């Protein structure tokens, strides 16, 4: 049992407050169960999902310097449950910390925009951390194992890491960007069986979906087919944008590839919280497009 309480500045992001509200719901249920305190950054803005820099790198850096500065004001690390937000904000944090040492004029320019708008300047005094890293590196898998009351035995879980979590930043301290194991280690901790397949670290296709939907859906379909062929009962992802392409659009994916799939796709905190005894209703498992009932039935729920 942990002797100290973990506390984070919580950056929920856009998707978890809209199309994937069950992610916000399950994150709060999981952290509450583990005794992790979240202070929501209600004044934070969208990270830009990588699109701001298409117009201006300075725009992306300034917007996200403000987001990070909100966490710095609380003297807390910034916690997100979105791989895209982690990749974007984490990379901005890396870039601005480098600017502190090597290009102070650029950082002064960024902070000049912030102070002009009455915002606190970026200081580079905190970290940007995904929920997965917080569970593995801060809370610890052994401590999570002590909290498990419902082992997810016989459940075969296929991780879908996606792009940004692993390769959105220049440096990743918690896993191998090409041969990761952190998600699989979480699965083992809660009693589930990890399923390995080729596409688990590849792009889900979401970035293509607005202008090349057929190609996007073919990518998603390929990953889902591979996971099913490898014996997965479900996919588990740490990214709500991946969840949108793999779950919400799975019916459209099926039409494009001409094959029925029906593979449930869970958010990471939903899976862990189930093992901690949280009820499916508290986790929003009824909000998914692809029914999660087969998962619950396999767990006897």
Automatic annotation (TrEMBL):
GO molecular function: oxidoreductase activity
Record bears the keyword Oxidoreductase: yes
Keyword tags: Oxidoreductase
Top-rank taxon: Bacteria
Record domain Cysteine-rich: where: 8-89, 158-247
InterPro entries for the chain: Cys_rich_dom, HdrB/HdrD_reductase
Keyword Chloroplast applies: no
Protein name: Heterodisulfide reductase
């Amino acid at each position: 049992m942990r002797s100290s309480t973990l506390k984070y500045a919580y950056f929920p992001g856009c998707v978890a407050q809209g199309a994937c509200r069950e992610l916000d719901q399950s994150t709060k249920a999981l952290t509450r169960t583990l005794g992790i305190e979240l202070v929501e950054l209600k004044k934070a803005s969208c990270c830009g999902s990588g699109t701001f820099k298409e117009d201006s790198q300075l725009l992306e850096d300034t917007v996200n310097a403000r987001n990070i500065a909100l966490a710095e004001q609380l003297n807390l690390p910034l916690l997100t449950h979105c791989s895209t937000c982690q990749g974007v904000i984490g990379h901005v944090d890396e870039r601005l910390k480098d600017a502190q040492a090597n290009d102070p004029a650029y950082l002064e320019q960024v902070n000049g925009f912030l102070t002009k708008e009455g915002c606190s300047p970026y200081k580079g005094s905190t970290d940007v951390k995904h929920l997965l890293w917080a569970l593995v590196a801060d809370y610890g898998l052994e401590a999570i194992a002590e909290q498990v009351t419902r082992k997810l035995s016989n459940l075969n879980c296929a991780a879908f890491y996606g792009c940004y979590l692993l390769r959105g930043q220049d440096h990743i301290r918690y896993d191998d960007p090409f041969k990761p194991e952190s998600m699989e280690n979480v699965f083992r901790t809660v009693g589930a069986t990890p399923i390995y397949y080729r596409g688990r670290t590849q792009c889900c296709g979401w970035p293509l979906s607005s202008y090349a939907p057929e190609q996007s859906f073919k990518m998603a379909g390929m990953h889902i087919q591979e996971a099913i062929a490898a014996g997965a009962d479900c996919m588990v992802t740490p990214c709500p944008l991946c969840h949108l392409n793999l779950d919400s659009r799975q019916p459209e994916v099926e039409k494009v590839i001409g094959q029925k799939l029906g593979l449930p796709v869970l958010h990471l905190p939903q899976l862990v919280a189930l093992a901690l005894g949280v009820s499916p209703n508290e986790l929003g498992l009824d909000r998914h497009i692809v029914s999660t009932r087969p998962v619950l039935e396999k767990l006897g729920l």
